[in-house]
Design goal:
Elements (H helix, E strand, L loop, with lengths): L6 E3 L27 E6 L15 E3 L6 E6 L3 E6 L7 E12 L18 E6 L7 E4 L16 E2 L10 E2 L6 E2 L5 E3 L5 E3 L1 E11 L5 E7 L9 E13 L9 H10 L5 H12 L3 H7 L10 H11 L4 H14 L4 H10 L3 H16 L5 H16 L2 H10 L3
Antiparallel strand pairs: 1-12, 2-16, 3-4, 4-16, 5-15, 6-14, 6-16, 7-8, 7-15, 9-10, 11-14, 12-13
Helix pairs in contact: 1-2, 2-8, 3-8, 4-5, 5-7, 6-7, 8-9
């Protein structure tokens, strides 16, 4: 960050080159496509981004001159594809470039200034579940100007607030040529590449993806991100292997295992399984022991006239823990009072900051998020049953 880094060396030959709008387009549009085919693809080497993107800035890495869409900071980037062929699923694959001094879970600099956490998000417009909502760090080294928090990130966990070493899950580390010199005057590589792929149940003729860095990011010469090798496929049932009980069991066993990347992959493969997976989870996810009577009392107190009672009720909800997450979300949707809604959201946000330490409760939290990702009425019914409704 600005107040604790001596200088950031972004070796772009003195400036980032913008690719001219020339060359043969690599994008393949859906008007001539069929289900089971690639409907969009671009590696940005010879083809500039077209009107499907909300921004057309292309830059070049210092090493190997790799062209990528970027660099962005807190900008919201969108990819909108229409006239898709009839399909049942969409798969998007891409490479995420995390560039420069991302310091992950750090929230306070060495000088006490407010920073971070450095979070990147990816989602689908109109969906309530983000595909990625995680902090990233390039600080995989020790330095006087780098705190322990800065050397951690939450990716690749699907749960917010978890802590892993910097660059966990990265497919490439220090391969792009970006470097940084801190107070000890040692040049260190500060870039990482993550290969992301998501299979999403989807049958509409149009889809819009969104990508954005959180507000904690610093200016682009210090922390930025980009995309490369973006590919979108429209798939039918025949293109996607249906999960049988054995496959679901194997994927569920991966949840809570020791391979974090495999766990995240298993999560999204299960999410694509729809109602079959929702019914499977009914007997796999631990049921919550929720004191619904106490929850109801807190909920009534939140809408009361006494400020101290409202404060006490808010704290009480936070202390009830992750088992009331589904009830909280339902209460938020039904809340008429703006203050009640804010207090409920605060309680929910507090739970996201500190994921369950107990392995079984962590698996439960992932299972409940999985049901939200499936998003069908059947998944909502199962989530309600598991929440003690």
């Amino acid at each position: 960050m600005t107040d604790r880094f001596a200088r950031l060396i972004l070796m772009f030959n003195n400036s980032l080159r913008i690719v001219a709008a020339a060359g043969v387009a690599l994008a393949i549009f859906a008007t001539a496509a069929r289900a089971g085919s690639v409907v969009y693809s671009n590696d940005f080497e010879n083809a500039p981004p077209g009107k499907e993107w909300s921004a057309d800035k292309v830059e070049v890495t210092p090493k190997d001159n790799r062209h990528f869409l970027g660099g962005f900071t807190t900008d919201k980037l969108t990819l909108k594809l229409d006239k898709l062929p009839k399909h049942k699923y969409v798969r998007i694959s891409l490479e995420l470039f995390i560039i420069a001094t991302w310091d992950g879970n750090a929230t306070v600099s060495s000088h006490g200034a407010r920073i971070g956490p450095d979070v990147w998000r990816m989602g689908i417009e109109g969906s309530h579940v983000l595909l990625v909502d995680a902090s990233f760090s390039n600080m995989d080294f020790e330095s006087r100007s780098v705190s322990e928090e800065a050397m951690t990130q939450s990716y690749p966990s699907v749960l917010s607030g978890e802590v892993f070493p910097a660059k966990t899950g990265a497919a490439e580390r220090g391969t792009l040529g970006f470097e940084w010199a801190s107070s000890d005057s040692v040049l260190r590589p500060v870039d990482s590449v993550y290969k992301l792929s998501f299979l999403i149940p989807h049958d509409a003729a149009e889809i819009q993806f969104s990508f954005q860095g959180a507000e904690g990011l610093q200016p682009a010469d210090e922390e930025c991100w980009g995309l490369d090798n973006v590919k979108v496929e429209a798939l039918d049932d025949a293109d996607v292997m249906r999960l049988d009980d054995a496959a679901m069991r194997k994927l569920w066993e991966t949840i809570g295992g020791h391979d974090l990347v495999a766990e995240t992959d298993a999560f999204w493969r299960l999410a694509a399984g729809g109602d079959d997976v929702a019914r499977f989870l009914r007997d796999k996810v631990k049921r919550a022991g929720v004191d619904r009577k106490q929850f109801g009392k807190y909920l009534l107190a939140l809408d009361g006239d006494d400020f101290q009672s409202r404060e006490k009720a808010t704290q009480g909800l936070k202390e009830m823990g992750p088992s009331i997450e589904t009830l909280l979300r339902e209460a938020i949707d039904k809340a008429d009072s703006a203050e009640v809604k804010l207090r409920l959201e605060a309680a929910l946000k507090e739970m996201d900051k500190v994921p369950p330490a107990d392995p079984e409760m962590r698996r439960r939290a992932i299972g409940m998020k999985l049901l939200r990702a499936i998003g069908t009425p059947e998944a909502a019914n199962v989530a309600g049953e598991l929440s003690g409704k």
